[in-house]
Specification:
CATH class: Alpha Beta
Largest sheet: 3 strands, parallel
Strand content: 5-15%
Strand order of the largest sheet: 1-2-6
Order of helices and strands: HEHEEHEEHEEHEHHHH
Mean pLDDT: 92
CATH architecture: 3-Layer(aba) Sandwich
Number of helices: 9
Structural class: alpha/beta
Amino acid sequence: MNDQGRCAKVNVEGTWNVIEACRRNNVKRLVHFSSIHSLCNEPLDIPIDETRPLVESLRSVPYDLSKAAGERLVRQATREGINTVIINPTGVIGPYDYRPSHFGQALIMMAEGRIPVLLEGGFDWVDARDVAEGAIKAEQTAPPGANYLLSGAWLSMRETAAVVSQITGKRPPLLVCPVSVAHACVPIVAEVSRWTGSRPIFTSVSLKALAGNRNISHDRASRELGYEPRPIRETLADTIMWFTDNGYIKGQKTQQR
């Protein structure tokens, strides 16, 4: 199954199955975890908030299209009488990243000093614990059909590496690779990954995300849910400490956060 088929099966068909289960069992409230990627990224000079339209361009990446399609199903279910609330987190990071995630793996490599060159761009990162708390508050207090952006803080990859360096004492990479050069290297990275059996450190999709909108507003969530994300340095310190304590990072002692 290709990426488009896999994304559709999980994010569209899976969402439909959940909605139907809620309908059959008279579930009191459905909290749908959507994504910042379900919303149109452009225009880049205007902050993204809950009024931003859903992705619909067929030129969008499969994940974005599938999350937007799943969110449309939930909105339709709301119109049909199901009590729903939708949350749209940005890039979720934090402790208990068992797999680890793509960004979790990048943090591990930074903490071990194994990333020689950084990529241009950045992303808005939010602590998994803050997302969980926001979702619980939305379930308890939000009006039916409400939706909330749960964002954190935008950091460039250079800024992220600098914070990781402060936490671990490891020297950060000095070189930053332009996105245009990184795009040209995507086939090489994919081939190396295929031969080594590892996940590629970056893809064309992740490069597109790094060049996205830097201003994502959680004003509605703060106003209506009392949502306040913790400082990003605290999140990074806790995440690196968790990776260290659980053997993902070898021989590392973190500094005071």
